[in-house]
UniProtKB/TrEMBL annotation:
Gene that produces this protein: gmd
Name of protein: GDP-mannose 4,6-dehydratase
GO molecular function: GDP-mannose 4,6-dehydratase activity; NADP+ binding
Protein function: Catalyzes the conversion of GDP-D-mannose to GDP-4-dehydro-6-deoxy-D-mannose.
Domain NAD(P)-binding, first and last residues per copy: 12-342
Similarity-based family: Belongs to the NAD(P)-dependent epimerase/dehydratase family. GDP-mannose 4,6-dehydratase subfamily.
Single biological process term from Gene Ontology: 'de novo' GDP-L-fucose biosynthetic process
Residues of the signal peptide: none
Keywords for this protein: Lyase, NADP, Nodulation
């Protein structure tokens, strides 16, 4: 077990402005950690998810601090690890959109694969192997083409996208640094997890946002790709607790976090529309298929083939028995509650007109 300074609890979160980073930062602050986050420079504000945690550092000893940085910049990462001296690093930063990874495969590899190496090397170069525990945000996308279900830690990997392949490197370099240098470096192999702050171009949020906007008459049609893909969807709030537990146990290792239930995109659509009292009937086949509101006869869902991926992951369903046994972790939020929460939040957002952006995969 890596010797940790028993008094200092200092976390460094890469990707703190993302869905998981923001939930994790809030959770760790609640546990009394000092939390440092890395944010990217952008031409417009990108900190909406963590703004409520921010306190003016001029006020003195604030527990939450943000630093500019990028997973593609080694010198920046080395300097930050040197200055912050984190006791725990959560590497959540990534180009995390599977379809976008087909458009930007090289950048995805740079940030999602080599970025992991850069951070592990920063720890090693600074001689902090024994002082720093490292969490890598691995993914069920590693399983890709179905080899066995449910998928667990021993299931062979077969990634199906540049994102999945980049994350495969991230997974193995984490294992290698654990074995080669005795680092406390662990992978969380997390299945899809969503929330009201999920990025707007992931399918769940795209659906709940469209349901709200259609309900309020701001939009007419939801355009989707593959309706038959099946995912094991949980709530991000539950999964970040699992991430934290992965770094608190005595031995490093690799852990699946999942609900053990799977649903199709089609089922998600049906449930989300049911939240606003609409029943969807599916008519037609293939790219001609449409989702029709049974009561009004209006077409609410259409297929747009641009959202189909060159290679797809058809079925994900995870077995989190190891996490249950060794971490005492279990998901708490039922699927129906997740959908309810997301639709309710998007209704509020649509009413206030606070939602950003109209386009996206
Ligand atoms: P998001 O896309 O919401 O957040 C990604 C974060 O990474 C953002 O803060 C983003 O910054 C940052 N980022 C992207 N590229 C870089 C870069 N080059 N340098 C520094 N920061 C960068 O993802 P999630 O919160 O959903 O996921 C967190 C991690 O977990 C990701 O690594 C993802 O691949 C992985 N994962 C997610 C799952 C899920 O279902 N949510 C499941 C399994 C794994 P910005 O805000 O500026 O864009
Ligand atoms: P995924 O999430 O690829 O599983 O990766 P996403 O929500 O993008 O897709 C889920 C499934 O829905 C199908 N789909 C669509 N997807 C999007 N984005 N937009 C559409 O219009 C659409 N129509 C159908 C997809 O084809 C796919 O089968 C997420 C990310 O968070 C990754 O970073 C993470 O590693 C995995 O989850 C676990």
């Amino acid at each position: 077990m890596a010797a940790q300074d028993s008094k200092r609890r200092v976390a460094l979160i890469t990707g703190v402005t993302g869905q998981d980073g923001a939930y994790l930062a809030e959770y760790l602050l609640g546990l009394g950690y000092t939390v440092h986050g890395i944010k990217r420079r952008s031409s417009s504000f990108n900190t909406a998810r963590v703004d409520h945690l921010y306190e003016d550092p001029h006020a003195g000893n604030v527990p939450f601090l943000m630093h500019y940085g990028d997973m593609t910049d080694s010198t920046n990462l080395i300097r930050l690890v040197q200055e912050i001296r984190p006791t725990e690093i959560y590497n959540l930063a990534a180009q995390s959109h599977v379809q976008v990874s087909f458009e930007s495969p090289e950048y995805t590899a740079n940030a999602d694969a080599i970025g992991v190496l850069r951070l592990l090397e920063a720890i090693r170069i600074l001689g902090r192997e024994k002082e720093t525990r490292f969490y890598q945000a691995s993914t069920s996308e590693l399983y890709g083409l179905v080899q066995e279900v449910p998928q667990k830690e021993t299931t062979p990997f077969y990634p199906r996208s540049p994102y999945g392949v980049a994350k495969l490197y991230g997974y193995w370099i984490t294992v290698n640094y654990r074995e080669a240098y005795g680092m406390f470096a662990s992978n969380g192999i997390l299945f899809n997890h969503e929330s009201p702050t999920r990025g707007e171009t992931f399918v769940t949020r795209k659906i709940t946002r469209a349901v709200a906007r259609i309900e309020l008459g701001l939009e007419n049609t939801l355009y989707l790709g593959n309706l038959d893909a099946k995912r094991d969807w949980g709530h991000a709030r539950d999964y970040i607790e699992g991430m934290h537990r992965i770094l608190q146990v005595d031995e490093p290792g690799d852990f699946v976090l999942a609900t053990g239930e799977t649903r199709s995109v089609r089922e998600f659509v049906e449930l989300a529309f049911a939240e606003v009292g609409r029943n969807i009937e599916w008519r037609g086949k293939g790219v001609e298929e449409v989702g029709v509101d049974k009561a009004s006869g209006k077409t609410l869902v259409q297929i747009d083939p641009t959202y189909f991926r060159p290679t797809e992951v058809d079925l994900l369903i995870g077995d989190a028995s190891k996490a249950r046994a060794k971490l005492g972790w279990a998901p708490k939020t039922p699927f129906s509650q997740l959908v309810k929460e997301m639709v309710a939040s998007d209704l509020v957002e649509a009413r206030q007109g606070t939602a950003n952006g109209k386009h996206g995969v």
